Amino acid sequence: MANSREIWRPGSFTKNFSWGRDSGLRELYEIIRLGFGGVVEDVPRATFRARVKIKNRPDFIAINFFLFNKPIDGIDHIIADELVYQALTAEHSATFDRLALFAFNLSMCGKWAGSHPFQRRPALWANRYITERVSAEFKWDTKFISADDIQDFVRNDERYQADTSRKLATNLYFLYSVGGISRFKEPRISRWWVDSLFLALDRIIEDRSLDGKATTEGQYSSLLAVFDFLPLTGGSNMEKELAAKHLVALYSACGSRERFSDKLVSDRTSLLLPEVQNYIANDTRPGGAIHPTNPRILKSIPRICAMLAKYIAGFDVITPDEMETFDLEEFIRTRTEAALRQLQESDIKPTMTADELKRITRGQ
Questions:
Q1: What's the CA gap between 103 and 109, in Å, rounded?
Q2: Which one, 177, 205, 275, 363, has least CB within 10 Å?
């Protein structure tokens, strides 16, 4: 149902942003790395643009549709969030591309001097196309996504206020095609989905702060639902719902966006020192947090968060080298073998036969 309070405007998305078809969203990846100068911290918007301009790269799509803008002490900044963190700490991959597509579809980009109110959520037409058409009607069967269907969706909705719809439709379909929207429907969670949950919370919290609203940790799960996290990321199932609960706990333990700041050391890790300092000193590369109940719940985190993930959120932690070479099947095999050895060493033996167990589980 149309919401008359919403206004959908295409803005500069109808321009040709010339991202190559064969390299996914590498252009966006490289623009982020240039603009932030390799450092995961908030950067003045003017500084970001100046860095990108030196390389003769266009920046308007990246900063107005994919990144988050906010004034800090009267100066427009682009914030360091999960999308930026992944661009600066990992190689370009399909995982980054899907995370970036989620950022676009979530459509929370903040505000800056001279921006229009609708630019705060500049791609609501894409957000609603995913939630109302792809998720609700297509049940995430992405073979129905096309430029023609996108055009039909926007031009027949009173929320869309523009003279043309074809260029927006072809650009959006191109973005979805090269970014890998077809992989969103996979039922098992993967790295891009895990990263997207962190990004969603980063953006939601920052967007609320623009209106002077504080967000408590107890609100995280409900806000993910309000802003359609599961419909935007391939739909819901039990694995995703359980994973979301564990990841919200990890996000809280890591201090939300403070996970990128040295301030986290004094605010959240005082009881764990000097263990934390020694752990960080050994290797500053991102490590991993993996939940013991499901090894697919694997999140790359700043090293400073490792002990918080372990002692507060109940995650196991793995080293940067283990993170880079992580193999799900090998991890499950080695953990299973270790558990069996522990049982043998403790002389723990089964008290019933396999046939007895089958009769119990089958109700015979």
A1: 9
A2: 363
Residues 6+ apart with CB under 8 A from 127: 105, 106, 107, 121, 228, 232
> How buried is residue 320: exposed, middle or buried, by Cβ count under 10 Å (0-12/13-18/19+)?
middle
Structure tokens at 42: 């908030």
The 8-class DSSP code of residue 30 comes to H
pLDDT per residue rounded down to tens, the chain (364 residues): 344 478 999 988 988 777 777 789 999 999 999 999 999 999 999 999 999 999 888 899 999 999 999 999 999 999 999 999 999 999 999 999 999 999 999 999 999 999 999 999 999 999 999 999 999 999 999 999 999 999 999 999 999 999 899 999 999 999 999 999 999 999 999 999 999 999 999 999 999 999 999 999 999 999 999 999 999 999 999 999 999 999 999 999 999 999 998 666 555 555 555 555 555 555 678 999 999 999 999 999 998 888 899 999 999 999 888 888 776 666 666 665 555 566 566 667 667 666 765 666 666 5
